[in-house]
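Same chain as my last thread, 326 residues:
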Amino acid sequence: MKALVQDRLGSPLDVVALRDVPQPIPAPGQALVRMVAVGIHPGDFFYTQGQYPEAKRPSLPGQIVGNHGVGRVVETGGRADLSPGMLVAFSATRLWAEFVTVDPAALVPLSNDYPVERAAQFMPAVTARDLLEASEVQAGQWLAVTAGHSLVSTLLIQMAARRGVKVVAIVRRKVEGRDLTALGATAVIELSALDVPLADAVRDAIGDEILFGVVDAIGGAVLTALLEALGFRGRAVIVGAYDLAPFQTNALRVLMQDQVIRAYIYRYFFDAPSVSDAAWITSVLEELADPSVEVLIAGVRPLEDFRAALEETVRAPENGKQVLVF
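reply #2:
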């Protein structure tokens, strides 16, 4: 079978190659899935560079890469509610390949007609919903969201707006033809065009109201400024780290303002979905499939065209996700 493989650590652009490798044989209790599509996500870059915790680092050489995707069940691994041919979404490892073996508990069943390109964005949708809930921002309150053009952020903006949350979307630069206010953002701040400090720009955007939440994928000076603007009992959730410079805040301010700064990593990064998650997952999938929800997909390419997909992901991630199909 064909698979995308790495032999050393580095950016996927530098270390990933297309190869013919043996098709995996499921061990007892494992499911076999024929992959249909995968999205290219920031986590795939963290993975190939060995930046994840030890349990999630590549085994080199010959590591098949890829963390999230959608496929059709070939063998169920004994899970009673699965059947051959069923469409499933899941998070695991070694997914940029024509066939994968996986713990059947990781598989999330989908309707046969679920839009495949949207199904490949299941984990960004899970992440967006989780981030909104982790921020604890309620209807009528303000939430600041960085990397505003990313898929997770655009989904988060739409989910927030549907629930009456007011969003300040923060972008590096505006994208021609893209209006985040049309997706539900109440205000948009363009970092490249700022003539005042970011904290002041946020305060100007929200007026006399309080910034109750921050969801940040940047870090560094941007996160420092947002923590300065964060209000009483505010919650800051860190989901990414494009800027590896340290961020700063005042310990006394955090204490007296009863603020929380917390990390978020994929809900199913270490553990498979539990039975108790079923209703929540169904709700996320319904929202993701809703045609009124915009899902930014910039390109759909065959596996053999992976390099162009990776290059576009690096060059213009704000344009939307690249999807590889099998």
